[in-house]
Amino acid sequence: xxxxxxxxxxxxxxxxxxxxxxxxxxxxxxxxxxxxxxxxxxxxxxxxxxxxxxxxxxxxxxxxxxxxxxxxxxxxxxxxxxxxxxxxxxxxxxxxxxxxxxxxxxxxxxxxxxxxxxxxxxxxxxxxxxxxxxxxxxxxxxxxxxxxxxxxxxxxxxxxxxxxxxxxxxxxxxxxxxxxxxxxxxxxxxxxxxxxxxxxxxxxxxxxxxxxxxxxxxxxxxxxxxxxxxxxxxxxxxxxxxxxxxxxxxxxxxxxxxxxxxxxxxxxxxxxxxxxxxxxxxxxxxxxxxxxxxxxxxxxxxxxxxxxxxxxxxxxxxxxxxxxxxxxxxxxxxxxxxxxxxxxxxxxxxxxxxxxxxxxxxxxxxxxxxxxxxxxxxxxxxxxxxxxxxxxxxxxxxxxxxxxxxxxxxxxx
Amino acid sequence: xxxxxxxxxxxxxxxxxxxxxxxxxxxxxxxxxxxxxxxxxxxxxxxxxxxxxxxxxxxxxxxxxxxxxxxxxxx
Lengths: 413, 75
Hints:
The complex is a heterodimer of chains A (413) and B (75).
Chain A: E1 8-12, H1 16-25, E2 29-33, H2 52-61, E3 65-70, H3 79-91, E4 96-99, H4 102-111, E5 115-117, H5 126-132, E6 136-140, H6 147-159, E7 171-178, H7 190-195, E8 213-215, E9 222-224, E10 235-237, H8 242-247, E11 252-255, H9 262-280, H10 286-298, E12 304-305, E13 327-339, E14 344-349, E15 354-355, E16 359-364, E17 368-373, E18 377-379, E19 382-383, E20 386-387, E21 392-396, E22 406-412
Parallel strand pairs in A: 1-2, 1-11, 2-3, 3-4, 4-5, 5-6, 6-7, 7-11, 10-12
Antiparallel strand pairs in A: 7-10, 8-9, 13-14, 13-22, 14-21, 15-20, 16-17, 16-22, 18-19, 18-21
Helix pairs in contact in A: 1-9, 3-4, 9-10
Chain B: E1 2-7, H1 16-20, E2 25-27, E3 34-36, E4 40-42, E5 45-50, H2 55-64, E6 70-74
Antiparallel strand pairs in B: 1-5, 1-6, 2-3, 4-5
């Protein structure tokens, strides 16, 4: 088993651009937040209840499963919104809800909406799997388990025939890529302590990503901790050992990143899609791993490590603030119109200049992510080599572009 | 006079304002966000004009708000 079973690739969507990017990258399913009851509660990373119909239609059109994250701690005043989100999810045929609070688990399961148990529950052993099997068919394991521990859990599910409400064996989901916490998920109160801003209500301010001094309180000596952001783990990346990860018998691979840009979502999703297929058809090689690694290094990352999966005792800490991505995007301007017969898009340039041969990126809620080389550029119907800021130009594009799109160039970081 | 403004749409429902200035704030059971009692709404911004006695508690609420959507001004 393991190698040949269906593996679902689950990608993050903080907005319509990223949702489209996930679909283009080859995701089998997407997860997203509605309103404020999820782990990325800030409004810019979420959809509203009014978006639910459009989200559902988009996912159904592309044959992608849709999961709502509803996994914060809940107070009494949240219960009616929680129920409304679940009711609306059922109405719009959303595939499942990702939950951690028993209020959500109980309500959704009583209404027949499939429940996935969030990593916020920190499932770390088989008895806990048995407990949640009363309510859920899919469970996300704590991110701190090793692959040995994952395999023990999936084997026990098979051996003891632990089934969820659907009557099928419980499926295990694990994080495959993206940011990690320095604490076991949900067990961190740093942000609440310093800023009243609870990670468990989706507003972590990420104290762990900063650099700290240590002060000797007896004599006042201060030490800067050498070279390391000691609370900031590098990002999880399982591409180098994806064959081993799938061999543990996990069924769903989750990519973190609802706060990430659409090109991040597409790049990472695509790399993992190809890697899963390579493992399944027996063509997973180091050479391919190197190619995928070069791709995911281009987009946001804090440096990579294998998380806790390889059984290392302590984390690997980031040595810098922010991203180590090898490329970055520079804003050029916005889409104006598309000429289908010519295959040409008109853009208003208002950020920076660009030139023939530059790698261009178009993102938008319907367009998703489109990357191509600027080969044919015209200004006032004359072919040109460069386009200055403030000018309107037309560019040959591989697909339709729209007035809701933004244009960027990709440059070395 | 004290003017309190609330950018309600961005509220995450943490409950701090209610804890710190109970006379002025309530949690809505409809959408789980806080309500500035008696405020007037204009383009999503809720505004309440009150006396100086409201200052201390509401400044504490504004300071505690994790998403910085409460402003308190003395005019």
